[in-house]
Design a protein that fits this description.
Blueprint lengths: L1 H4 L3 H7 L2 H5 L29 H8 L1 H7 L2 H18 L2 H18 L19 H17 L13 H29 L2 H4 E6 L2 E6 L1 H10 L3 H23 L15 H16 L10
Antiparallel strand pairs: 1-2
């Protein structure tokens, strides 16, 4: 599959954030990024049916949307990507590949599987971005290994993505508890620091606190990121196989249309307006 994806790695990287931008354009987008699975009881949350129709019949679609639908949305995106491969439509394949990667990665983030998604209930506001952005920003390039080998065919995508969600949910309490424990050991002037970013002085978690947190988590962030990379690659591969393994050197529709480019522009403009439609999960 390298013949398709490697030449377009810049596009995939740039447009992997399109789902986040879409949160600024449509209210329905937000629920596709998370699931507050703790709202359905205790681990392993057997009260929540794994199949969409069963869950909808039991809890109503409004309730499911309120608490997040990421494991179901990943499966919807897989069907769409599979259809794009069947159509041999390169533009559609690339757009959907970038976007499904985002949702799959979100499912690997512990705080995307917990209603206390930004520590708002435990006076830990900011922990979402700390785990998801600050820790990898500081450590990934120099210390982490993202070579994960070949992708695998996923026989049961539904079960696969639910297992990833359950792993995230199981880790959420540790993410929160360890930050709180470490905060009690660090004076405030050592927990945070001020750094220059593009000419602007910003307050953020200090390097010392970030490294201590990563050590306390015993590499959890790196492990989840590695698993996310493997999962994304395996979903791409699964969609291609399920589509009949079309020849990726003979795809059609290789140029983005005016409508495609307009869609990208609209997403960018909505993001620049900085007004999330619906609930902002990361504030």
């Amino acid at each position: 599959m390298l013949v398709l994806y490697k030449p377009h790695v810049d596009f995939l990287t740039e447009h992997a954030v399109d789902p986040d931008m879409r949160r600024y354009a449509i209210a329905q987008e937000g629920a596709r990024h998370y699931i507050d699975i703790d709202k359905y009881g205790k681990y392993p949350f057997d009260a929540l049916p794994r199949k969409w129709n069963d869950a909808r019949d039991k809890f109503s679609e409004d309730s499911l949307q309120k608490h997040g639908i990421v494991p179901w949305w990943v499966q919807t995106m897989l069907y769409r990507l599979t259809d794009a491969f069947k159509e041999k439509n390169q533009v559609k394949i690339l757009k959907l590949s970038a976007e499904i990667g985002h949702y799959i990665a979100d499912a690997h983030v512990p705080l995307h599987a917990n209603s206390n998604h930004n520590g708002q209930y435990t006076h830990q506001q900011g922990i979402h971005g700390f785990w998801e952005s600050r820790v990898p920003e500081l450590l990934a390039d120099k210390e982490w290994d993202f070579f994960i080998g070949k992708a695998d065919y996923i026989k049961d995508p539904g079960n696969f993505i639910w297992q990833r969600v359950l792993e995230s949910a199981a880790a959420a309490d540790t993410v929160l508890e360890y930050e709180k424990e470490l905060s009690e050991q660090f004076p405030a002037d050592q927990k945070f620091s001020f750094e220059n970013r593009n000419g602007i002085i910003v307050r953020q978690y200090s390097s010392a606190f970030t490294k201590a947190y990563d050590m306390k988590l015993k590499g959890m962030v790196e492990r989840r990121m590695r698993m996310a990379i493997y999962s994304v690659a395996s979903f791409w591969y699964t969609a291609w196989v399920n589509a009949g393994e079309p020849d990726l050197t003979k795809l059609s529709n290789k140029e983005f249309s005016a409508d495609d480019l307009k869609e990208f522009e609209n997403l960018s403009n909505a993001w620049k307006d900085n007004k999330v439609k619906g609930e902002d999960r990361e504030e």
